[in-house]
Write a structure and sequence with these properties.
4 strands; 66% helix; 4% strand
Length: 424
């Protein structure tokens, strides 16, 4: 009786230990699943929070649409199954319960057929939603979204402001007025002759000779009348007449020649002055006209130069403004690209950390499960050993006192218990 009691207590103890090990494994697995779900939920929330920053750089993603799955689902829906019973998913965890039976060695969950059949009887098929058929595969990004595509488009397509083509200042100088060619005075120098009265020419002038002959003929007529042609009076009168005539005539000729000289002299001086005035007037007119034309040319040159300078400055200012706007936009885009790059790096780091953490949890759970399996196996092995030892004691009650035969020599390896005992 004592060995049987011992064997029975060992069996119960082993079963309890095995069941406790199984419960501990299930609790550990549940804790691991909960911790994994919490981390995944937090990771999904973190992704949701960071996605707008990432998409600010990459753009709004376009996901691949599973057309084949959609066609199948919608085909099933339109084939008349919309109001007919649609079987629920047998793999839904709500249809399974944990196997907690004390003597159940199989650890597979138990399928709840009643609950499944109840849902199957009342299930209806809903119209499929297209949003449920997009995969996680990104096949592109919406046009006009995202800083990186916009930045690359700005760089590759050459939309940066083009520097202005500054022209050299050009002005036709061939139209400049030519300086007048000032001619030399054409009037020469004023040469005034001195007054010169030639007495000899005056004495032999035809005028004086004519007057002398006329006077002498008159004297001859008077002398003949008075019968004094050959007298001394006649000679005397002739001498007096000639002296008076010469004196009077020479004075007349001198006066006339002097008046003529003075008149000609004044006329020469007046003509010379007129020529000088005309020359000076013409020269001053040409110089004045040249000065006016030169000033007009200079004003036109300055006006064109001013317009050129204004146009050049305007072009440079516009280029500066356009460059400022372009650079500001590119810097802002680059900033968004940096934000997206930093976000992508952060998401990658967080994802790696999350994966590593979940991997560690699963590895720990695996180790716990393995240890539990080993502990359960050890408990069962110990239970079997206890049972075999107890059976040996019951067949050879004296073996516990060291008497009798050598149990190892009795048809077996386990304390004298026949090996085929466990196969009967």
């Amino acid at each position: 009786m004592i060995p049987a009691a011992i064997a029975g207590g060992s069996v119960v103890s082993g079963l309890l230990q095995s069941d406790a090990t199984k419960d501990a494994t299930n609790i550990s697995a549940g804790s691991t699943k909960y911790a994994t779900d919490v981390q995944n939920d937090q990771w999904n929330q973190t992704q949701s929070n960071l996605t707008p920053f990432l998409e600010s750089a990459t753009g709004t993603p376009i996901y691949e649409f599973d057309q084949a799955a959609w066609d199948t689902a919608y085909g099933d829906y339109t084939a008349g199954q919309a109001n007919e019973g649609a079987l629920p998913d047998r793999n839904d965890p709500k249809y399974y319960t944990d196997n907690t039976g004390m003597f159940e060695w199989d650890s597979e969950p138990i399928f709840n057929a009643d609950l499944y059949n109840q849902d199957a009887a009342t299930a209806t098929m809903a119209e499929p939603n297209r949003d449920d058929f997009y995969t996680k595969n990104v096949i592109g990004y919406e046009e006009g979204t995202g800083a990186l595509p916009t930045y690359l488009d700005q760089v590759l397509n050459g939309t940066a402001p083009t520097p202005p083509q500054l022209q050299n200042f050009e002005y036709d100088l061939s139209g400049a007025p030519q300086a007048p060619t000032l001619a030399a005075p054409g009037y020469g120098e004023l040469n005034l002759q001195d007054f010169n009265f030639n007495v000899e020419e005056a004495m032999n002038s035809p005028e004086l000779d004519f007057m002398r002959r006329q006077g002498e003929q008159q004297l001859d007529r008077l002398s003949a009348k008075n019968r004094q042609l050959g007298s001394g009076n006649r000679l005397y009168d002739a001498l007096n007449f000639n002296e008076g005539l010469v004196s009077t005539n020479l004075a007349d000729q001198f006066g006339r020649q002097l008046n003529s000289y003075n008149t000609n002299r004044q006329s020469d001086i007046a003509n010379y002055g007129s020529a000088v005035d005309l020359y000076n007037t013409n020269q001053n007119r040409d110089i004045k006209n040249y000065s006016l034309q030169d000033q007009q040319f200079a004003n036109d040159y300055a006006r064109n130069l001013g317009m050129y300078d204004t146009n050049q400055r305007t072009a440079l200012n516009n280029y500066g403004l356009d460059s400022g706007v372009y650079n500001d936009r590119m810097n802002r885009l680059a900033g968004l690209v940096d934000v997206g790059r930093g976000t992508g790096t952060a998401m990658g780091t967080l994802g790696a950390q999350n994966a590593s953490s979940i991997s560690n949890l699963l590895m720990n759970q695996g180790n716990v499960g393995a240890a539990a399996e080993m502990a359960g196996a050890n408990n069962i092995t110990g239970l079997l050993n206890t049972g075999m030892q107890t059976a040996g004691m019951m067949n050879n009650p004296y073996s516990q006192y060291g008497g009798g035969y050598d149990s190892m020599n009795y048809d077996g390896q386990y304390g004298g218990i026949p090996f085929d005992m466990y196969t009967r």
